[in-house]
Amino acid sequence: MNAKQLELIAEQNRKRLVEVVYAAKAGHIGGDLSCLNVMTALYFEVMKNIDPAQPKNPERDRFVLSKGHCVEALYVTLEAKGFLKPEVLDTLGKFGSILSGHPTIEVPGIEVNSGALGHGLSIGVGMAIAAKMDKKPYRTYVMMGDGEQGEGSIYEAAMAGHRYQLDNLVAIIDRNHLQISGNTEDVMPLDSIKERWSAFGWDVIELNGDSMDDILRAFNSIDYTNQKPHLLVSNTTKGRGVSFMEGIAKWHHGVLNEEQCQDAVKEIEKRIEELKN
């Protein structure tokens, strides 16, 4: 798919996300919106052998959402890909639903339970090592938050990724600069991420995660034969695509009222119509 086609899917997913979070009266909508473009590109262009008819295909690429509190973005992506039926997604926030506030393997298409921050990259390292040992072609993609980078286990996994030359592993940091406590640089400074991860022996690529063109450029530039694990630093905007949420920390876990939901949907629908023309 080209960038415009992916943008259309991302905007349709963005509309669905707003509606689902509003109906559930819960969700981490700010981070959902900032990582949604990259997640759309992954599932509809980058990852291979992802098939809802064969969810356990041993050749499939793997995705781990380490920042599991942003599971609503994953749910709408899985629905768009055909793993989840709309009537199942509509149960989010309701008693008895298989959908919870973090990924669980009860949900079709989800590889591992995640959301205890700092664990996803270690799981991804294990998956990538397994692929090497079994001589399988699949790749593993792990999405982390930038606030999550304060977890020490991430850096143990980073060292292991380098030690085992895991060029079949791609980690992504959703770099929106905001976490629940405020600006990441006030809570626990991260920059320079590129210098830090390069020192760990990783191949680091920076990109504009708000731009589908640049997302595709970054993924297409990965050298999966260079014997280095890869890190994409995806510079994004918290609340991307809903103007009154963008760059505002309170939307880390904000709940929309009816008027806000309607305003957000109208804003997104306008972009959807423009992309269809």
Brief summary of the model shown:
This protein is of the alpha/beta class and 277 residues long.
Description:
A hairpin with a 2-residue loop joins strand 4 and strand 5. This protein is of the alpha/beta class and 277 residues long. The strands form two sheets. It has a five-stranded parallel β-sheet, with helices on both faces. A two-stranded antiparallel ribbon has the order 4-5. The protein has helices at residues 3-24, 29-46, 71-81, 86-89, 120-134, 153-163, 184-187, 193-199, 212-220, 258-276; strands spanning 62-65, 140-145, 169-175, 178-179, 182-183, 203-208, 230-235. The chain has ten helices and seven strands.
How far apart are the first and last residues' alpha carbons, in Å? 17 Å
- SSE-based structural type: alpha/beta
Q: How would the global form be characterised?
A: globular
Order of strands in the sheet with the most strands?
Answer: 1-2-3-7-6
**Describe the biggest sheet?**
5 strands, parallel
| Total strands | 7
| Range of helix content | 40-55%
Helix and strand sequence:
HHEHHHEHEEEHHEHEH
Average pLDDT taken over every residue = 95
Uncertain stretches of 5 or more adjacent residues: none
Quaternary structure type: single chain
Beta fraction: 5-15%
The tally of helices reads 10
Q: In angstroms, what is the radius of gyration?
A: 18 Å
